[in-house]
Amino acid sequence: MRKSFKLDEIDCANCARKLQDELAKVDGVDSVSVNFMTQKLTLSAADERFGDVLDRVVALTAKIEPDCAIIR
Question: Is the pTM of this model over 0.85?
Fold first, then answer.
């Protein structure tokens, strides 16, 4: 499954790149893209695990970029 989500308060391109690199390491993530210009996160993971993977991505995003939120 592949879905896109709006990011709230991603501050710079460097922050977006750092976030993307770390989210790519999450178990179950097939691919992830963080676009600073469009303020969008695109996540791809197996259908049966997508909810769990998304929860871990949201938690890690809050840890890495506390001011940034994934709008579900």
Answer: yes
